[in-house]
C-alpha cells in the first residue's frame, strides 16, 4: 500500500523550556518534530502513555481516527490523565473527573460546574501527524510554540516505494543511536556476518559532502558494495537515509534503503524507528513484501540487535574518553552540531 500522511492536529506546544544545555543535549533538542511511536499503538478509541524528551505524554484517538497528544498531567491536581477515562474527544481525569479535550482545554469540572478552570487551555497539546505507520509530534519550548515547517522523508511519501516500519526501545542515550547511523564503517565489522554487509573492504576513506538540508558522510573509494554512505537530513525532523546493496536472492527492486529516526525517551533511553524500503511496483512490490515477511525481516532484526547490544554497553561517559580517527568525522560533525544547538536553546531560555 502507498504510504500516506494525515493532517496535523493539536494546539501549540509549550513547556519544554530548559536553562541547561546539558539537559537538552541529554534529552533532545527542542523546537523540532520527532517520531513518537507506531500508529498501531493508539487504535481508534484507545489511549497510550509514553515518555518522550524526558516528559510524560498521553496519546488518544477518537473513533473517527483523529489523533491527539497531551501532557500526561491533569491541570487540577497533577494526576495522570492516562489513568483517566477516554470520552471520545476528551479525557476525564480519574481523580476528580476534570475533562480535558484534545487541544488541552478544560471542558468540564463536574465537582464545580462553571468554575474558572472551564474554558481555559491548561494542558500542553503538541501538534501531531502520521507518516508511514508512525506518529510524529512537534516538541516546542515557550519561545517557539508554533510548529516549524515539516518536510517528510521522500521514501515515505513516494507511492512507488514500499516500506516496513521496525520499532524498538533501547536503554541507550538517543545520541548514541544517531552517531551510530553516522558511522558507516561499523557495518564492515559489527554486521559483517549479515546477509547484506559481508562484502567490501574493511578499510576506507571518507568525506563530508554538504547538502541543502544536511550532509552526506560517504566513502570515497567504494560505492554500491556495503554500508557506503549515509545522509543526515534536517527537514523539521531529523532523519537519516542510507542504502545497502542487496544480493539477487533478495528479489527485485534494486538496493535496500533505510530511513532512520531516533527519539529521546529520557537521558538513558531512546526509541528507534527504521523504515526498510525498496522502490518497487506492480508484481515486484508483492514479491518484495512476501520475501521481507518470510525471509528478510528476522535477519534485519538480528542486525538491529547487534546495534542494541553495543550501544547499551557503552558507558555513560563513553564520549569523554575517546580516541577518534578519520572514520569518525560524521560522528564528530553531528555531535558538535547538536551540542551547539543545545547551548543556543539554553541561552535563549534565559535571555530576557
UniProtKB/TrEMBL annotation:
Keywords: 2Fe-2S, Dioxygenase, Iron, Iron-sulfur, Metal-binding, Oxidoreductase
Keyword check for Ribonucleoprotein: no
Organism whose genome encodes this protein: Streptacidiphilus fuscans
Domain of life: Bacteria
GO MF annotation terms: 2 iron, 2 sulfur cluster binding; dioxygenase activity; metal ion binding; monooxygenase activity; oxidoreductase activity, acting on paired donors, with incorporation or reduction of molecular oxygen
Protein name in the entry: Aromatic ring-hydroxylating dioxygenase subunit alpha
SUPFAM superfamilies to which the protein is assigned, alphabetical: Bet v1-like, ISP domain
Signal peptide positions (record): none
Domain Rieske residue range list: 33-137
